[in-house]
Design brief:
6-stranded mixed sheet, single chain, 200 residues, alpha+beta, 16% helix, 7-stranded mixed sheet
């Protein structure tokens, strides 16, 4: 679980004020959060669970359009996550990744294959050099957690049903002078598991 560090002197704004600022900031297109450098206003009692559910004051945010709005002003600085507007920056808690990739489409085959993912808030990205796939395995159980980069340094956890479909599209290639099972997309090979472990 990652939470932004406190330390700001000003009281954190409410979710309502952030939503209002976000609506104004995104009227003309995607919010350029990387260009905004407001003062840190403290932490907000907002959390993104591993399944992509957003909570505010311990209660799930039930309006998908509000979740999409908040997700549009999300930024990760270092290991911490923030909601950022031109005048406010507040820390929130993220249990794993801030997005969940809930589906994907495939075009091409073999090394020409392209995987296009869709997140639970409607973001779409083509896996490749600019949107790499990575797989983290639990050191104790070996359970894989696959991710794809959405934007900047914000990732989406690829959901289980999609990962099972991806495994069906996998192939064996040489990576770092060793055989690996992995995925091609956008002209790049993304290793998933050493071939010898898969065989075992």
């Amino acid at each position: 679980m990652t939470k932004a560090k406190s330390g700001g002197k000003a009281a954190a704004p409410s979710a309502e004020s952030l939503a209002s600022a976000a609506r104004a900031a995104t009227k003309r297109g995607p919010a350029p959060v990387h260009l905004w450098n407001p003062e840190f206003c403290g932490d907000l009692d907002m959390r993104i669970a591993r399944d992509g559910t957003w909570f505010y004051l311990g209660t799930p945010i039930g309006r998908p359009e509000l979740v999409r709005l908040f997700s549009s002003i999300l930024r990760k600085d270092g290991d911490d996550y923030f909601l950022v507007t031109p005048v406010e920056k507040v820390g929130i808690t993220v249990d794993d990744a801030p997005f969940v990739a809930v589906d994907f489409e495939t075009s091409g085959t073999g090394r020409d294959q392209v995987l296009c993912f869709t997140t639970h808030v409607g973001d779409k990205m083509r896996a490749g050099p600019d949107h790499p796939i990575r797989v983290v395995r639990d050191p104790e159980t070996g359970e894989p957690s696959p991710y794809v980069l959405v934007r900047a340094n914000l990732e989406a956890l690829i959901d289980r049903k999609s990962f099972y479909r991806l495994v069906d599209l996998g192939t064996h290639e040489t990576h770092d002078d060793a055989p690996w099972f992995g995925l091609w997309s956008g002209g790049q090979f993304f290793p998933v598991i050493p071939s010898e472990e898969l065989a075992g």
